[in-house]
Structure formats: C-alpha cells, structure tokens
Amino acid sequence: MTQNPFGQNQGQNQGQTHQNMHTGTVPPDMNHGGHELFDVHEVLSLSIAAMDQSTLLRQHAKDPELIDIMDRQYRFMRQEYNTLVDCFKTGQDPQVPTQSYKMAGGNDFIYGMTQTQPKKPMMSPQELDDAAISGFLLGSAKASATGKTAAALETTNPVVRRVLADSVPNCIEMAYELSIYQNKHHYYQVPQLADTDMQAILNAYAPATGGQQPGMQ
C-alpha cells in the first residue's frame, strides 16, 4: 500500500471485491458510482482549466516572486492531476501517491486597511498586471479546494476518495501562498475588528466538560 503524506493509506481498495446487484462483480476500473464520475470529471476539467490559465498568464507576469510561485504551483498541479487521473482510470493505487505542497515563503499577514483606488473591470488586455494575475490564480485554487471537497463527499471508490481528500489541503496551501503574496503587495487587505469586539468573540466559547456523552449510563 502507498502511504500519503498525512499518514493514512491510499490503497484502501486493494484486494477488495465490489458487487453490483444487477451485473455481479465490479472490476477495479469500474468501481465508481454515477455521482462520483460526474464530480471527478468536473474536478479534472477544473484542474486543466487552472493549468491552462497559468500557462496563458505566465508570459504577462512581471514580478519574479510571482513567476516563481506560478512555476512551482504549476508543477505541483500537473503531478497531482496525473495522480488523480491514474487512480480514477484504474480504480487502484496511483503510481505516484499524493504529495504535500510546501510554500516557499513565510506566513505573515499585514492587518489593516489603507485607502486605494476602487477596483473595476479591465477595459483592455493591456491593463492585465500582477495584481489581476495573482487574483485569477487565487480564485482557481479556491475553486479547486471547493470542487475536490464536494467530489470527495460523493466518491465511492476508496482510493479516489482518499486522493481527493488529501489534495484539498494542497489547494488551501496554494491559495494561502497567493493570498500572502497579494497581501504583501497591498492587492488584498485584511481588516481586523476592534479589540473589544475581537475579545468578545474569542471568549464566547468554553471547553466542553464531562467524562462521557450525556444520556449514557
């Protein structure tokens, strides 16, 4: 069995026999439900769109830091796409298991708002800049996280389900890296509540107490 970076087996489908009540034994490559087929189809299409978008936008990026992020994320997305295609087509362990994406920089956010020009749609392709490019990539990463989560909840094949579930944190990490980049360059600002309001919310919950579930003897 292959091990994913989160310490759980991806090879949950090895050696198992699945049945269809009408046709009998289900071979590994057909071990997929209808909802799963449609949802994973959407995930793979979304992955291709994200990579194609990155390919088209890369030539317009100017900041070396953004170009480095784009290149690293593209290579990771391509391998993750191949891993999902592999297990989706075979119904079994992929040859290359799910990896874990690592950001290159820190995770410090700058809080607070400053006055900026109001945003509005571009009027010409010449207005495309690093702020817009990083925003497009951030939107794709968020959409991938949402799509993979929804697909994992509908997937019956245990290997495909685990590959999808393990890839969601990678989408979140890539989105986080892009949001940090945007925040550093003031493309994306993060407001904070007043101290009293923040403390009120932070202290609105207390730990659960008791040794067993209520109602149990």
Automatic annotation (TrEMBL):
Keyword Transport: no
Pfam families: Coat_F
Subcellular location: Spore coat
Keywords from the UniProt entry: Capsid protein, Sporulation, Virion
Coarse class of the protein's main subcellular location: other
Region Disordered: start-end pairs: 1-35
Ranges of Low complexity composition bias in the record: 1-20
Keyword Signal: no
InterPro entries, alphabetized: Ferritin-like, Spore_coat_CotF-like
Family: Belongs to the CotF family.
Name under which the protein is recorded: Spore coat protein CotF
